[in-house]
Amino acid sequence: MLRELLCLGILLAILVGFSHGECNACSVDSKTACVSRNQYQNCTLDNIPTGPIYTCPNKTNCTGSVERCTSNETLFSCNDCNKCDGTQNFTCTSPSTFALCDGVSVVNIEYSCSLGQVCNINNRNYCAPPLNGTGATCPYYNSTTVIGDFCNTKSSMGRYPDPSDSSCLRYIYCFRKGSTWTGNTWQCPLAKPYFSSITFNCVTTKPSNCV
């Protein structure tokens, strides 16, 4: 009986590990990528998050499991940002910054990744260039209000460079909805993978200001 319970516990741990999901990484189960605690994007066949950002309903959170959104805290994704668990020597504090760990405490000194790099807690060098615009442990967007604030500043319908993506693979499309400005994040297609801040369109050749 004890042996059966032990095996069951190991199986549950494995399932939780696979369903938990990393931030900004496509899940094999859901075919989506969690981009914040409660938001996700669909993934292309070659595992690139793309298209509009969807918000989980009814105060649920994003997960790497098939259901995409859940109220089960053990399955929440984008849950490793700005945390020290006592086993690591650093933690990511944003997509491109990190801080050292002192046990389970985060040292109050923040360091920046090199231009064009993102922080990932699984990287012993702290930071590395993003893979197809993904790879950051911390979410690029904490809520839809970030995009709303960005578009409210622009106050004009159209496409704009995503300020959080130095690889220029994403852009923000702003539009007016009722009396407020809002927008969606989009990925440039593979045929024209880079977004130009000059033409405000996706282009085939990487612009000189992109990493």
Q: Helicity range of the residues?
A: 10-25%
Q: Average pLDDT, to the nearest integer?
A: 81
Q: Could you describe the largest sheet, including whether it forms a barrel?
A: 3 strands, antiparallel
Strand proportion, as a percent range, falls in 25-35%
| Terminal residue distance | 56 Å
Number of helices: 2
> What strand order characterises the main sheet?
1-2-3
N to C succession of SSEs: HEEEEEEEEEEHEEEEE
Give structural attributes.
single chain, alpha+beta, 15 strands, 3 domains
Task: Describe the secondary structure blueprint for this structure.
Elements: H1 2-20, E1 32-36, E2 39-43, E3 49-55, E4 61-62, E5 69-70, E6 90-94, E7 97-102, E8 105-112, E9 118-119, E10 127-128, H2 144-154, E11 158-161, E12 170-177, E13 180-187, E14 194-195, E15 202-203
Antiparallel strand pairs: 1-2, 2-3, 4-5, 6-7, 7-8, 9-10, 11-12, 12-13, 14-15
Keywords: Signal
InterPro entries: Chitin-bd_dom
Signal peptide: 1-21
Task: Describe this protein's structure.
By secondary structure, the chain is an alpha+beta fold. The protein folds into 3 domains: 13-75, no CATH class; 80-140, no CATH class; 144-203, no CATH class. It has 2 helices and 15 strands. A 3-stranded antiparallel beta sheet has the order 1-2-3, with no helix packed on it. Strand 11 (158-161) and strand 12 form a beta hairpin. The chain is globular and about 50 Å long. The termini are far apart. Keywords: Signal.
